[in-house]
Amino acid sequence: VDHLLGIKYLNEDDIQLIFETADHFKEVINRSIKKVPSLRDITIANIFFENSTRTKLSFELAEKRLSADIVNFSAGQSSVKKGETLVDTVNNILSMKVDMVVMRHPNPGAGIFLAKHVNAAIINAGDGAHEHPTQALLDSFSIRERLGDVAGKKVLIVGDILHSRVALSNIYALKLQGAEVKVCGPKTLIPKYIGDLGVSVETDFQKALAWCDVANMLRVQNERMDISYFPSTREYAMQYGLTMERLNQLDKEIVVMHPGPINRGVEVTSAVADSSHSIILDQVENGVAVRMAVIYLLASKIKSI
Ligand code: CP
Question: Which CATH fold would you assign to the domain 133-280?
Answer without folding.
Answer: Rossmann fold (3.40.50)
